[in-house]
Design brief:
single chain; about 150 residues; mainly alpha; about 85% helix; about 0% strand
């Protein structure tokens, strides 16, 4: 079960990145090009937040139930915090990713509430962009990039 969920979590990473980067690029182009906010812009924000949520749920399943790293670390938290790799999985990765999910949702909410198209694009660009930066910072690049 662990391998399956880890593989899904790994694959979903690419969906999050692709949809997020497309949403950020469209938002910046709309913001600086003063383009109208169209249905595609709204859908990209929705798909980005949905993919973030799926990724978070898979990550939490790994974190709380399935991961041998975190389950062992919870038994001796002090020793786990002294090891940089274990600390990364126990604190740094999940905290940064939760921040990314929050940023994505805030960006979607604020862009929906804005009344002017340029403001919608601006809010989406800023918050989705910050979410992507956080995601890129917290991706474990030292692990295989593909699950197979």
């Amino acid at each position: 079960m662990y391998s399956i969920v880890l593989g899904l979590h790994n694959i979903t990473r690419w969906i999050v990145l692709i949809v997020g980067i497309v949403a950020v690029v469209r938002a910046f182009l709309g913001w600086f090009g003063k383009k109208p906010w169209v249905d595609l812009d709204d859908k990209l924000g929705l798909y980005f937040t949905i993919s973030l949520d799926v990724q978070l749920l898979l990550g939490l399943l790994l974190y709380v139930v399935l991961s041998p790293i975190t389950t062992a670390a919870f038994s001796n938290f002090g020793a786990a915090m002294a090891d940089p790799t274990t600390r990364y999985w126990l604190v740094e990765h999940i905290l940064t990713m939760i921040i990314a999910v929050i940023l994505g949702h805030v960006g979607r909410s604020l862009s929906k509430k804005a009344t002017v198209d340029v403001a919608k694009h601006q809010r989406a660009a800023i918050f989705f962009g910050l979410a992507i930066v956080a995601i890129l910072a917290a991706i474990p690049w030292f692990r295989p990039l593909l699950p197979f």
